[in-house]
C-alpha cells in the first residue's frame, strides 16, 4: 500500500525520545545558547541581511498533485474530504472506480525533469532565491525520507532525490539561495488524525514524522529558506516549533544564514517567526514595520500546474511587474510561484513569465535589489509611480508603470535642488532635464524614444540623486 503510513517501528534514538515526550540534549541549547526556545527570544533574532537585499524569489509547487493537475494542488482534499463535484466527476470520467490517490504515486514520473535546465531558467528570472515544495499536505516528500519509507520520490514515482538534484544544480550553476517549503501536517496521515481526535493532547505525528523529517531536511540539504506551512489547526506547542527553531538558529548547519517564515502553528502567522507572510497573496497596502513576503501565483487560481488553465488565468508580465514594484515599495519580498508539470517541465507560459521578469530586472534591478523603503511608498498625485531608495548613496528611485503621453512625469514627493540633483532613466545613459514645482515636487522631461529604443517594455525607473 502506498498511502502515507506511520514510519518504521524500529525507531531511531531521537524519535524514541520524542515519542516519550523528551527533548534530546543538544550542545548549545542550554543557558548559554544565543536563542532560547521561546517566541520572545526567537522573534528577537535579526533576519539575515541577504534576504531583505534579495527582494525577489521563485516558489515551486510540485508533487503528486501534479499528476491529476486539475483544479488545485489541494486535489486530494477537495476530492476525498469535501467531495466537491467537479473533482469527483473528474475522477469518475478519467479513472477506474477503485482508483485511490496513492495510485497517482507511480504516475508521478518526472521523466523530463532536468535540474540543470530548471536552474538556468530560474537564474534567468532575476530571482535571488528559490523555494521548492519538499513536501506538501499530501505527505509525499521529494527526497528519500527515512520517515516516509514507502511514499516519497526515491521509493515511488521518479525514484530520484528531486531535492538533492535541484539543490546541487542551483548551487553549482547559479547565485541563487536555495530554499525549501515543508508542510507540517498531512491531511490523511493516521497519526495526525489520531492526534487531532485527542484535541492535539497526543503528539505522535510530530514525534514520529514531522520533527525527524525537518531535522533530516535541514541537515541533508541545508536550505537557506525554511518555509513552513500547514499547521492543521494545531498550536506551535503541539509541533514543538520553538524547540526546533532554537536548534535551527543555534546549532544547525545553516544557523547564521537561514530565514524562516511565520507559519509554525495556529496563531503564529503574522505574529511569530522570521518574516511575515500573513496570508497567501498578501498585500498590506501600507508600510509594515516587520519584514514580510508576498507569496503569490502566476496562475490566478492554483499553486500547482493545471491542465485546464486558459491563457487569461495567468497574470500578464505587466501585472507581475506591478506586483513586484508595489511589494518592494512597501518593504516586502515577492515570492512568485510556478507549477511544473508531472513530467518535470516548466511550461512555456511559466518560462516566458520568468524570462520576461529577468529581462525587466536586467534594466531596472538597481531600483529593486538592495533597496529600502522611502518616506513615501507611492506618489499621491501621479498614479502608478512607486518609490524605493538607497539611503547610503542618497538615491531615490521613482518607478513608473505608465509612460505619460505628454512625455513629462510629475513627481510630487521628491524635492530637488538646482546644481545638485541629477535624474537618469535606467537603461538610458544621458541625464534628464527637470524643473522644480511649487510648493513641492519636480517635473521630469522624459526622452523622446521610439518603441525600439525603450530600455524596457513594462515599467521604467528614474534614478534621482540628491533629492529629499
TrEMBL record:
GO terms for cellular component: extracellular space; lysosome. Its EC number is 3.2.1.51. Keywords: Glycoprotein, Glycosidase, Hydrolase, Signal. GO terms for biological process: fucose metabolic process; glycoside catabolic process; regulation of entry of bacterium into host cell; response to bacterium. It catalyses: an alpha-L-fucoside + H2O = L-fucose + an alcohol; a neolactoside IV(2)-alpha-Fuc-nLc4Cer(d18:0) + H2O = a neolactoside nLc4Cer(d18:0) + L-fucose; a neolactoside IV(2)-alpha-Fuc-nLc4Cer(d18:1(4E)) + H2O = a neolactoside nLc4Cer(d18:1(4E)) + L-fucose. Residues 377-465 form the Alpha-L-fucosidase C-terminal domain. The keyword Glycoprotein applies. Homotetramer. This is Alpha-L-fucosidase.
Amino acid at each position: 500500500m502506498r498511502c502515507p503510513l506511520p514510519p518504521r517501528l524500529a525507531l531511531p534514538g531521537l524519535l524514541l525520545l520524542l515519542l516519550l515526550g523528551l527533548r534530546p540534549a543538544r550542545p548549545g541549547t542550554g543557558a548559554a545558547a544565543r536563542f532560547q526556545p521561546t517566541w520572545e527570544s526567537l522573534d528577537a533574532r535579526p533576519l539575515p541581511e541577504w534576504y531583505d537585499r534579495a527582494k525577489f524569489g521563485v516558489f515551486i509547487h510540485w508533487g503528486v498533485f501534479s499528476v491529476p493537475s486539475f483544479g488545485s494542488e489541494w486535489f486530494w482534499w477537495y476530492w476525498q474530504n469535501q467531495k466537491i463535484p467537479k473533482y469527483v466527476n473528474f475522477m469518475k470520467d478519467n479513472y477506474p472506480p477503485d482508483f485511490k490517490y496513492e495510485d497517482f504515486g507511480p504516475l508521478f514520473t518526472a521523466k523530463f525533469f532536468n535540474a540543470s535546465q530548471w536552474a538556468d531558467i530560474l537564474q534567468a528570472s532575476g530571482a535571488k532565491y528559490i523555494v521548492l515544495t519538499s513536501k506538501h499536505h499530501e505527505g509525499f516528500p521529494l527526497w528519500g525520507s527515512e520517515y516516509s519509507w514507502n511514499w516519497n520520490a526515491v521509493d515511488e514515482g521518479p525514484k530520484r532525490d528531486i531535492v538533492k538534484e535541484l539543490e546541487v544544480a542551483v548551487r553549482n550553476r547559479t547565485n541563487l539561495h536555495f530554499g525549501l517549503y515543508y508542510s507540517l501536517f498531512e491531511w490523511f496521515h493516521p497519526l495526525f488524525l489520531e492526534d487531532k481526535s485527542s484535541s492535539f493532547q497526543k503528539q505522535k505525528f510530530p514525534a514520529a514524522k514531522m520533527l525527524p523529517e525537518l531535522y533530516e531536511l535541514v541537515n541533508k540539504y541545508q536550505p537557506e529558506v525554511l518555509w513552513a506551512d500547514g499547521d492543521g489547526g494545531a498550536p506551535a506547542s503541539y509541533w514543538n516549533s520553538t524547540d526546533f527553531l532554537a536548534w535551527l538558529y543555534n546549532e544547525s548547519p545553516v544557523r547564521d544564514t537561514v530565514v524562516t517564515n511565520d507559519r509554525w502553528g495556529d496563531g503564529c502567522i503574522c505574529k511569530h517567526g522570521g518574516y511575515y507572510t500573513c496570508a497567501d497573496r498578501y498585500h498590506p497596502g501600507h508600510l509594515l514595520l516587520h519584514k514580510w513576503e508576498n507569496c503569490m501565483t502566476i496562475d490566478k487560481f492554483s499553486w500547482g500546474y493545471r491542465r485546464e488553465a486558459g491563457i487569461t488565468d495567468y497574470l500578464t508580465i505587466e501585472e507581475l511587474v506591478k506586483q513586484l514594484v508595489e511589494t518592494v515599495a512597501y518593504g516586502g519580498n515577492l515570492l512568485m510561484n510556478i507549477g511544473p508539470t508531472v513530467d518535470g517541465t516548466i511550461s512555456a507560459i511559466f518560462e516566458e513569465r520568468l524570462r520576461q521578469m529577468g529581462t525587466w530586472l536586467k534594466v531596472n534591478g538597481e531600483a529593486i535589489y538592495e533597496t529600502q523603503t522611502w518616506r513615501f511608498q507611492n506618489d499621491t498625485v501621479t498614479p502608478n509611480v512607486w518609490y524605493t531608495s538607497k539611503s547610503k548613496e542618497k538615491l531615490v528611485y521613482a518607478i513608473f508603470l505608465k509612460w505619460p503621453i505628454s512625455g513629462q512625469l510629475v513627481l510630487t514627493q521628491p524635492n530637488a535642488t538646482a546644481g545638485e540633483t541629477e535624474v537618469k532613466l535606467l537603461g538610458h545613459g544621458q541625464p534628464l532635464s527637470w524643473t522644480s514645482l511649487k510648493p513641492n515636487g519636480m517635473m521630469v522631461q522624459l526622452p523622446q524614444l521610439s518603441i525600439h529604443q525603450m530600455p524596457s517594455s513594462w515599467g521604467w525607473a528614474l534614478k534621482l540623486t540628491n533629492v529629499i
